Amino acid sequence: MEKLRRGTVKFTAPPQILAHGCTVSKKESQGPLGSLFDQVQEDEYFGQDNWEKAESQFQAAAINICLNRAGIKGSDLDGAVGGDLLNQCTATSFAIKDLKAPFLGVYGACSTIAESLITAAALVDGGYGERVLASAGSHFCSAEKQFRTPLEYGSQRPPSAQWTVTGAGAVLIGKTGGKARITAATVGTIVDMGIKDANHMGGAMAPAFADTIAAHLRGVGARPIDYDAIFSGDLGVIGIDLAQELLRREEIDISSVHHDCGEMIFDRKSQDVHAGGSGCGCAASVLCAHVLPMLESGQWKRVLFCATGALLSPTTVLQGESIPCIAHAVELRGPAEPAEPTESNEQAG
């Protein structure tokens, strides 16, 4: 691993994506990406008696799909890194406990899958283990109950609100044997613009996304056009425009390659999700269903995946605090080519 600048590293021996899996509920399967998800669970309770247990089951299902594809068991893992939106990341703890794998619980709100990927890649690159799992998930009903108002209240959702994705994604990272690779990463810094509205996540997170994207591009010496796609996690339609405007002020134009997982996963015209999707499961499921397959097939060669998170809690909302936000960027590449450009050549371009 080589430090390029504060917060940004390049993996000299890029960790490999060995397998991945995702699962979503019926609503997500009715969106534009519906046919791409590995498993659709028609029952949002997932056979459980409450939303929180269901959230855990969605993540456990994604993990099982991933491990089955890799042909390994939980006992074969050298580590697992993951998180969710529930208090103390309990959905992930219950999802992973039966794997009997060394576990690191992480919390980055909706940016958690990127934080998990970076941590897992660093563990593999640092020699901690040969195979480390990264995962994240969320559930619409448990998120509404925890961060806003329980569904039974029937409260009106404002136009800026986003629909938390019920779903999860899991990625297995190893030293060799994958078609996609993690070549660089930037750990973001917290950006707090003073927004206090818990129903305005896109506006709150956009400055953090812009800050991390600018830092990553400068760190690796790349331009937006060097990527086939740049993904944000869940800015939604409001956050997309704001993030692009903030980057244009830095003379960085990502508009031609920018895609947002929250804008892609639902059909806003027919599904009444207001500003788009959100939640840990949003970026995680789109990554596993769409982004990684496009890289593995060779249709894309280089992607910048930057998941975004609002670091609020029920306590801080009730106390009237502002919403600190974060974004973490993971640079992904497809199958290695015989003569890839060197870092110096990329910077010169």
Q: How far apart lie the N and C ends?
A: 23 Å
Structural class: alpha/beta
- Count of beta strands: 15
Nearest-integer average pLDDT? 91
Give the topology string: H per helix, E per strand.
EEEHEHEHEHEHEEEHEHEHHEHEHEH
- Number of separate domains: 2
Helix and strand topology:
Elements (H helix, E strand, L loop, with lengths): L1 E4 L2 E3 L5 E10 H4 L9 E3 L9 H20 L8 E5 L6 H7 L6 E3 L6 H14 L5 E8 L1 H8 L15 E2 L2 E8 L5 E7 L14 H20 L8 E4 L3 H13 L9 E3 H4 L3 H4 L5 E2 L1 H17 L5 E9 L3 H5 L6 E9 L9 H6 L1
Parallel strand pairs: 3-4, 5-6, 5-7, 8-13, 11-12, 11-14
Antiparallel strand pairs: 1-2, 2-10, 3-9, 3-10, 7-9, 10-15, 14-15
Describe the model:
The protein has about 350 residues and is α/β, with parallel strands linked by helices. It has 12 helices and 15 strands. The chain folds into 2 domains: about 170 residues, Peroxisomal Thiolase, Chain A, domain 1; about 160 residues, Peroxisomal Thiolase, Chain A, domain 1. Strands 1, 2, 3, 4, 5, 6, 7, 9, 10, 11, 12, 14 and 15 form a 13-stranded mixed beta sheet that branches. The protein has a two-stranded parallel ribbon with strand order 8-13. The longest helix has 20 residues. The radius of gyration is 19 Å and the shape is globular.
